[in-house]
Amino acid sequence: MYDKITYDMGWVVQVEKHYPGNYGAPGMARAPKKKRTPEDIARQNERNKVKRVQRLIIMNFKEGDWHLTLTYRKDARPATEEEAKKCIGDLLGGMRRAYKKAGYPFKYICATEKGKRGAYHYHLIIEDIAAPDLNTKEMVMKFWPHGMRNFSPLYKDGEFEDLAEYLTKKETKEGKGHSYTHSRNLIMPKPKREKIHQKTWRKDPIPKKGYYIVKDSVINGINPVTGYPYQHYTMRCTSEEDTHGRIYTGTIRGGPQ
Questions:
Q1: What is the pLDDT of residues 53-95, one digit of tens each?
Q2: How many Cβ atoms from other residues are within 10 Å of residue 81's Cβ?
Q3: Predicted local confidence at residue 242, as pLDDT
């Protein structure tokens, strides 16, 4: 018997399989165990953080929404961390009020980065709304008068996953840290937990109907603490409508592997 945990986010489904506690299947060979070091724990915590943010992005944003980068003109750079917080806070607060007035929820994930020379800039993931009563790009232009606003549309082909790792990483190449926050209205997918009454699983998993296994997502590893195997993999929807009934107008990139 093993545990199967499924995160169904509509167009993406993540699956994790492992043996409960220190108990593997009867007769199963066991790799040597080792005690976790503080470094092991820190790496695991970081991986878990990346997965949480990845799932937030996948669950709450769609292809065509924005990855927005905000920078300061040289003459507008804040002198202190408090001034920098006020600048980004003014933008987020202004957009929240504008969205609420127009009847839309404002959803975002925001990462603050401080460069080697002390200059701040920001990475945001926000919805793209272009309605008669609200336009996301116009709101950003209005509430960020301090410098450049670079809009890049999100694509499903790996970018959602890559962005999660970037937004949560502890160090940049300049040696400075990231910090990130997000709006409280984001939906976190609830894991479905199952006890599978089989000795083991297929090394090459079979996708459910309407999905394909993402290339290179299948990981068959050994838990260093328990000494027993685990498996992780990701499936993606092959159509423009996912299991949550959400429609995606962009092309489903990547295709079955």
A1: 999 999 999 888 999 999 999 999 998 989 999 999 999 999 9
A2: 12
A3: 53
CA-CA-CA-CA dihedral for 173, 149, 159, 122, to nearest 10: 40
Angle of helix 81-102 relative to helix 136-143, nearest 10 degrees?
A: 140
pLDDT digits (tens, 9 = 90+) for 152-176: 998 766 667 778 887 877 544 444 5
Q: What is the mean pLDDT of residues 131-155?
A: 94
| Structure tokens belonging to residue 250 | 């962009």
**Dihedral (Cα; 146, 98, 62, 184), 10-degree rounding:** 90
Q: Percentage of the chain surpassing pLDDT 70?
A: 82
Stretch 195-209: mean pLDDT, rounded? Answer: 94
- Nearest-angstrom CA–CA distance, 99 and 105: 6
- Only one residue has tokens 């299948």, namely 218
> Do residues 159 and 103 touch, judged by C-beta distance below 8 A?
no
Q: What is the DSSP string of the chain?
A: -EEEEEEE-SSEEEEEEE-STT---TT---PPP-PPPHHHHHHHHHHHHHHHHHHHHHHH--TT-EEEEE---GGG--SSHHHHHHHHHHHHHHHHHHHHHHT----EEEEEEE-TTS-EEEEEEE---EETTEEHHHHHHHH--SS-EEEEE--TTTHHHHHHHHHH-S--TTS--EEEEE-TTPPPPPPEEEEE-SS---SSPPPPTTEEEPTT--EEEE-TTT--EEEEEEEEESSSB-TT--B--S---S---
